[in-house]
Amino acid sequence: MDLTESSFAWLILLIIGAIFVTPSVREIRRTRQLRRAGAKAYGQIVGHHLGEGENGNTTYAPVVAWRTPDGLRREYCPAWSNSGKGRFKVGTSAVIYYDPADPDHSAALRSYDGGWVTWFALLPGTAAIGFGLFEMVAVLLGR
User: Considering its fold, how many domains does the chain have in total?
Assistant: First the structure.
């Protein structure tokens, strides 16, 4: 087996794949866990956190206010934002899933957290891992 630089391309592909897949899988698992075992609350979009995108454009993340069963008002803002407000306009009703033991730090907004963007991020990571495994087998078998 010739151990040239090109024979380790599979390792680079596996690392790139892991970089894409790991955060997506964590977010999907976190969101599913909150939906399955967390509490559900109905809230309202009260504003947007403004950020700046890669191209200098303004990005928006909805801020949702809701009340816990004991009457305390809580707010949640997702960690990531996008270029438009979409259906999350101020005054719109929203569903929040949260951990009753830690409502300020463990929440998920339905149709936002763990949504299609998170699933879409799995595609390049999965493809890189697949190509990496293919290359690894090809190198181990001597091509």
Answer: 1
Distances (CA, A) of 92 to 7, 76, 82, 95, 115: 54, 14, 17, 10, 18
Q: How distant, in Å, are the alpha carbons of 17, 75, 94 from that of 136?
A: 14, 47, 46
Q: Give start and end residues of each alpha helix (H) in 38-108.
A: none
Query: 115 or 49, which is more confident?
Result: 49
- Residue recorded with tokens 């977010």: 27
With beta carbons less than 8 A apart as the criterion, state whether 28 and 118 touch: yes
The residue segments making up the domain with residue 69 are 5-140
Q: Which two tokens stand for residue 95?
A: 């569903």
**Look-up of token digits 């005054």:** 91
Instruction: Using DSSP, state whether 130 is helix, strand or coil.
Output: helix
Answer with the residue of higher pLDDT: 118 or 89.
Answer: 89
Between CA 78 and CA 50, with CA 106 as vertex, the angle to 5 degrees is: 20
